[in-house]
Specification:
about 475 residues; alpha/beta; Rossmann fold; pyruvate-formate lyase- activating enzyme; OB fold (Dihydrolipoamide Acetyltransferase, E2P); 3 domains; about 20% strand; binds 5'-deoxyadenosine; binds iron/sulfur cluster
Length: about 475
C-alpha cells in the first residue's frame, strides 16, 4: 500500500465524488463516496462506484443530499484512522435528522476494526472489506431492512478484473489501473498484509484492454498500481511452477511492455516498486519505450542495514544502492523518489544518520516521509518495543524533511534550461491563463495556456523552479 505513494497517503483526505450523467437506470438513490489513503484506495472507490451505479445509484458531490455515505478508509498510521473517526461522527449527527441515511466504512479500517465499528463504536451501519465490494448492493439492502451489515472476508482470487471502473474526478487525462491486490511481504511495521490480504495478480488481458479503452476515451496516462508491482506474475506460481503450458508467462516487465504498446501517446507510470524484487528487466523495458515515464518510486524506509532487517524489508543498504546504481546506469534521466520512516523501534542516532547519508548519496528527487506509528497485530508490535520518544521521532522526521527539501530544490534547479515533454492535466488553480501538467520525471510544470488543452503533449523549456514545481515556456515545433 505504498505510494502508493502519494500525497494522499501522507495525509490529506480527498473527496472522490462526481455526478454521472448517463446512468443505465436509476433507483433514485444518491451515493457519496469519500476516499482516504493510497492510490489503491482511490482506484477501489472507482470499482465501488461502478458496482453501485450498475445497480441504479447515482453519485453526488454533496454529502447533504446523499442516501448512502461510504468512506473508503486507510489504517496505515494511527492519525489516518483518527481523521476518519472524526468525519464519521460528523455524518452521524446528520443521521439524527435523517434516520434512513446509510453510513458505511470500506477499505483497511473496515478490515482491521470489523464489527467494533458497528457494535462498540456505533459509528456505522455497514462495514465492507477490500475484497467484498461486489456484495455492497446486498449489504446496503440489509441495512435498509433494518439490520447492520458486515462482509470482511478476504479472498485469494478477487481482482475485480471484469469491472470497468467509473472514473471519478480525474479530469479525463490520467487514470489508475489496478494490476494486483494484497501483499505477501510482511514488512514488520505494516498493517497492509492484514487488511488487504494475500497477493494476487490480475489477468493481463483485462489490464491491456482497460488501458486501450482508456486511450480510446481520451486518457493519455495510466498508472499501474500494486503494493509490490515487481512481483506481478501471471500463469506462474510463487514457487515458479507454470500453470498453463499453452499460455505465456507474464512478468511485470512483460506486462509493462504490453501496455506501452497500446499506443505511443499513452504514458505509463507504475507504483510501487520493491527494492528486493526490482530487477534490471523492468529498467530495460523502461529505457526501451519513450512512453514509459522516467520515474521510479523505490521506498527505502531506512538507510541502515540493521534497521532494515528489523523492518523485514529483505535487503541491505548495499543491495539498495546497487539497485539505485542500476537505475542511474540504465535510465540516466530517471527521477527517483522514496518513502522513509523515522524513529522505528530501537533506532539509534547513528542509524538515523545512515538514513540521512543514504538520502544524500541517492540524491532523491522526491520523498514521502513519516514517523513510525505502531500498528496493532504487526510483527513490530509483537516483537519490538516502540521505544523512541515521540519528540525524537518528530525531530528525526524534521531533519529528513529539511534534507529532502534541499535535495528536491537541487534536483529542480538542474532542470532549468532543459526542455521536457509535458502532458497537460488542467488549468492552473492560480491563473486561468496558465496550464499545468507533469514531465516524464513526475514534476509538476506550469506554463502559458495559449491554445493548449488538457490531454495535449507540449515541449516546455524550463525557466524557473521551486522545490515543488517547474515553470517554463512552450517550445513550438
Ligand atoms: N508507520 C509509519 N509509516 C508507515 N508506512 C507504512 N506503515 C507505517 C507505519 N506503521 C509508510 C511506509 C510505506 C508508506 C506507504 O507508508 O513508508 O512505504
Ligand atoms: Fe508495502 Fe511492505 Fe506494507 Fe507490503 S508489507 S504494503 S511491501 S510496506
Amino acid at each position: 500500500m505504498e505510494k502508493t505513494i502519494d500525497e494522499s497517503i501522507q495525509g490529506s483526505a480527498t473527496m472522490l465524488n462526481t455526478n454521472l450523467a448517463a446512468e443505465k437506470f436509476s433507483n433514485g438513490k444518491k451515493l457519496y463516496l469519500e476516499s482516504y489513503g493510497c492510490q489503491m484506495n482511490f482506484s477501489d472507490s472507482e470499482i465501488v462506484a461502478s458496482i453501485l451505479t450498475d445497480k441504479g445509484f447515482s453519485t453526488t458531490r454533496n454529502a447533504e443530499e446523499a442516501d448512502v455515505i461510504l468512506m473508503n478508509t486507510c489504517s496505515i498510521r494511527e492519525n489516518a484512522e483518527q481523521r476518519v473517526r472524526n468525519k464519521l461522527s460528523q455524518y452521524n449527527k446528520r443521521k439524527k435528522q435523517n434516520p434512513s441515511l446509510v453510513i458505511g466504512v470500506l477499505g483497511c479500517m473496515a478490515e482491521r476494526l470489523k464489527d467494533s465499528l458497528l457494535e462498540q463504536e456505533k459509528l456505522v451501519d455497514l462495514v465492507a472489506g477490500p475484497d467484498s465490494y461486489r456484495d455492497l448492493p446486498n449489504l446496503i439492502e440489509e441495512v435498509e431492512s433494518g439490520q447492520k451489515a458486515v462482509n470482511v472476508l478476504l479472498s485469494r482470487e478477487e481482482t475485480y478484473a471484469d469491472i470497468s471502473p467509473v472514473r471519478l474526478g480525474s479530469g479525463g487525462v490520467t487514470a489508475f489501473i489496478s494490476i494486483m491486490r494484497g501483499c505477501d511481504n510482511m514488512c514488520s511495521f505494516c498493517v497492509v498484509p492484514f487488511t488487504r490480504g494475500r497477493e494476487r495478480s490480475r489477468d493481463p488481458k483485462s489490464i491491456v484492454q482497460e488501458a486501450s479503452d482508456l486511450f480510446d476515451q481520451g486518457y493519455r496516462e495510466v498508472t499501474l498500481l500494486g503494493q509490490n508491482v515487481d512481483s506481478y506474475k501471471w500463469n506462474i506460481t510463487k514457487k515458479g511452477e507454470i500453470i498453463n503450458p499453452d499460455e505465456p508467462v507474464v512478468t511485470f516487465a512483460n506486462l509493462m511492455e504490453k501496455v506501452a504498446l497500446v499506443n505511443p501517446d499513452l504514458r505509463i507510470r507504475f507504483s510501487t516498486s520493491h527494492p528486493k524484487d526490482m530487477i534490471d528487466d523492468v529498467l530495460h523495458v523502461m529505457a526501451k519505450y519513450e512512453n514509459i515515464c522516467d520515474y521510479i518510486h523505490l521506498p527505502v524506509q531506512s538507510g541502515n542495514t540493521e534497521v532494515l532487517k528489523k523492518m523485514n524489508r529483505g535487503y541491505t543498504r548495499e543491495w539498495y544502492m546497487n539497485r539505485i546504481d542500476a537505475i542511474k546506469r540504465i535510465i540516466p534521466e530517471a527521477a527517483i523518489s522514496t518513502d522513509i520512516i523515522t524513529g522505528f523501534c530501537g533506532e539509534t542516532d547513528e542509524q538515523h544518520k545512515d538514513t540521512l547519508t543514504l538520502m544524500s548519496e541517492v540524491g532523491y528527487d522526491f520523498a514521502y516521509m513519516f514517523f513510525y506509528s505502531e500498528r496493532p497485530k504487526t510483527l513490530a508490535e509483537r516483537k519490538f518495543e516502540d521505544d523512541i520518544p515521540e519528540a525524537t521521532k518528530k525531530q528525526r522526521l524534521y531533519e529528513v524533511q529539511e534534507l529532502q527539501a534541499e535535495l528536491s530544490l537541487a534536483s529542480n534547479k538542474k532542470a532549468v534550461g532543459k526542455t521536457y515533454k509535458v502532458l497537460i492535466e488542467g488549468i492552473s488553480k492560480r491563473s486561468d491563463e496558465e496550464v499545468y501538467g507533469r514531465n516524464s520525471q513526475n514534476v509538476t510544470t506550469i506554463f502559458a495556456k495559449d491554445d493548449y488543452k488538457p490531454g495535449d503533449y507540449v515541449n516546455v523549456k524550463i525557466t524557473d523552479y521551486t522545490s515543488a514545481t517547474l515553470r517554463g515556456i512552450a517550445v513550438k515545433a
